[in-house]
Design goal:
mainly alpha; globular; binds cytidine-5'-monophosphate; transport; EmrE-like; transmembrane helix; Nuc_sug_transpt; pyrimidine nucleotide-sugar transmembrane transporter activity
Length: 318
């Protein structure tokens, strides 16, 4: 049962990551009339959706009794303020990370973003070893080294990038810094959440409500600081369309699936599952969005080697 849940949650995660990254990139680059949606508000809406979904799950766990639901929420959240407060740390970090993700995808193509973000597998491994005392075998360390080489491969400036350096270097740099910071926050927050989840008995959905509660507060602070003026001028939901809602729902779904993966598998496996989605994103980004276009034979080979080599660490680790 638990092995089934492990592979089911990992499979859904591959689907969710691929669709989120492509839809988010598409929604941030689509040229439309009127104001574009504010990513800071999208982060808050996703948190609120996640809380609602988790409350429904706890309600189901409480045998669909409103009274039992009320009691669980009271006992586990309100009456344990110190336990609840523990979640403020990963939540603050995730909020920063979720905002960085939009910055990255507004400045980098979907495939480059995905590949670079895989460095989080390394940061996650390092945090797992130091915070959870996990032991990694030789093959696992080897696969991490291959992973890093791949990132360097893809990030190495190509002929075409050097030609267009003046045009895009600034935004590439911003995008890259955003992803690199997100790699560290992802590793730390994920392992911290895993530690809390595996060292205490509380339900994963209760933990997610606590996480989402702080996430919404931090997210609203972000809206106020970065987009306060725009929100007071054009409203909180300015620029929202059907695509924006799909992004927001996918992001909320991601929170639920990731929580399940951390519970039934672990953060390192989660990292490798998401790296499988790179292959999918790359293919779709190339064939459908025409977003990732190799421009010379050298660049062509370099980019594809960079993408395909991801199979090696995934296979070595499984
Ligand atoms: O890239 P990474 O795997 O670190 O992304 C984790 C994402 O999952 C973040 O967007 C975070 O907000 C979300 N998350 C969540 N609930 C959890 C754990 C992570 O919503 N319990």
């Amino acid at each position: 049962m638990s092995a089934n849940l492990k592979y089911l949650s990992l499979g859904i995660l591959v689907f969710q990551t691929t669709s989120l990254v492509l839809t988010m990139r598409y929604s941030r680059t689509l040229k439309e009339e009127g104001p574009r949606y504010l990513s800071s508000t999208a982060v808050v809406v996703a948190e609120l959706l996640k809380i609602m979904a988790c409350i429904l799950l706890v309600y189901k766990e409480s045998k669909c009794s409103l009274r039992a639901l009320n009691r669980v929420l009271h006992d586990e959240i309100l009456n344990k303020p110190m336990e609840t407060l523990k979640l403020a740390i990963p939540s603050g970090i995730y909020t920063l990370q979720n905002n960085l993700l939009y910055v990255a995808l507004s400045n980098l193509d979907a495939a480059t973003y995905q590949v670079t973000y895989q460095l989080k597998i390394l940061t996650t491994a390092l945090f797992s070893v130091s915070m959870l005392s996990k032991k990694l075998g030789v093959y696992q360390w080897l696969s991490l080294v291959i992973l890093m080489t791949g990132v360097a491969f893809v990030q190495w400036p190509s002929d075409s990038q050097l030609d267009s350096k003046e045009l895009s270097a600034g935004s590439q740099f911003v995008g890259l810094m955003a992803v690199l910071t997100a790699c560290f926050s992802s590793g730390f927050a994920g392992v911290y959440f895993e530690k809390i989840l595996k060292e205490t008995k509380q339900s994963v959905w209760i933990r997610n409500i606590q996480l989402g509660f702080f996430g919404s507060i931090f997210g609203l602070m972000g809206v106020y600081i970065y987009d306060g003026e725009l929100v007071s001028k054009n409203g909180f939901f300015q620029g929202y369309n059907r695509l924006t809602w799909i992004v927001v729902v996918l992001q909320a779904l991601g929170g639920l699936v990731i929580a399940a993966v951390i519970k039934y598998a672990d953060n390192i496996l989660k990292g490798f599952a998401t790296s499988l989605s790179i292959i999918l994103s790359t293919l779709i980004s190339y064939f459908w969005l025409q977003d990732f276009v190799p421009t010379s034979p050298y660049c062509n080979m370099k980019d594809w080697v960079g993408q395909v080599q991801w199979f090696i660490p995934v296979i070595l680790t499984l």
